[in-house]
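During the reporting period, we have paired protein sequences with backbone structure tokens. One record among many follows, to show the layout:
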Amino acid sequence: MDGYWREVECKKVHDPLFYPNFHDSEDSGSLQGLCTSWKEPLFVPGPIIVGGGPSGLAVAACLNAKGIPSVVLERAHCIASLWQLKTYDRLRLHLPKKHCELPLTPFPSWFPTYPTKHQFVSYLEAYAREHGVRPRFNETVVAAEYDPVLGFWRVRTTKGSAERREYLCRWLVAATGENAEAVVPALEGAADFGGPIVHTSAYKSGDAFRGKRVLVVGCGNSGMEVCLDLCNHDAKPTIVVRDSVHVLPREMLGRSTFGLAMWLLKWLPLWMVDGLLLLLARLMLGNTAKFGLRRPQLGPLRLKSLSGKTPVLDVGTLVLIKSKHIKVRPAGIKKLMKHRAEFVDGTTEEFDAVILATGYKSNVPCWLKEKDGLGSGWEGKTREGLYAVGFSKRGLLGSSLDANRIAGDIEERWKSELEKIK
């Protein structure tokens, strides 16, 4: 009897005729118009994609191109919520646009080499329209768990304070990425500081800090660029550089540093490419250690492959560090006091504000109820139909590659399931 019911449920999920006019519906792909009258649980014929950022849009677009419907669940009210709601005004893509485009659709030719965040968002919105991707907004996934009896994923969501919903699907794609939640360290004495302490996710412009002494904690791309922005708005930034960091020019020999590295890797081993990049960086930038920016023992590409730590691509911050418009503090913060910070080397300094450029983390452990998490790589746990996109630490290029692979793998399984129920 259990086998009979499992076959019935599979037919419900995978038979396209079970959903009348699904592909012709105005809301195909999002199920927006179909779900309102159904009782829970709701059966979804294709994959559920958790996350409406670039990674989730890319997977949905690739699936739609293969005729496979999907449901994209997004907790915010818009696509690419990180880019639209939690980034500073001056942000641009750090890599050339040709390395950041999503599958099937290139950037407009008139966009600059490094598009602004507003241009990137407009590209994503046009991308979603072109490929018929209509996420279900304001719907937060609170739990996703594989049901081995049915062979489906149970995905539970909330919308607002009252509405709760459960979906059943054969395939689940985690696309919330590595930057879903801000990492906010607990600083001793923060309650006594008396000035603003904000994460970069809430930072928009240095205009609010004009004339103020600002301590920036974190020396990645965001921390460095926030310091530059603060200087451009007549603030007085100091950056805490507790760890070693690779700082590279954004462009070398007339090419983007990333593009040059990828080209060299076609012909040379990684260790040699690392050596060449560091030699060119030394010739162009000088010895960064003299200014408090110690380089790691491992080369930038080797470090990226082992730890995911991205080198800083300099867009003008280093010149201001050399001219001492931006101060570098090589020691970490011990504690905060009233408009003052004490560092682990025993020194203290007065500040009016603190900006935490301390990065982000994944929120998958909060909702994916799997003992071993996502597994490894894009394939996740394909036996259970679990996939991951945007977790490869290879940026938008990695997300695009993974989206194509996931769509191809699901297509094979989709066709196989349809053959079983014919």
Summary: The chain has a mean pLDDT of 88. Residues 175 and 240 are 32 Å apart (CA to CA).
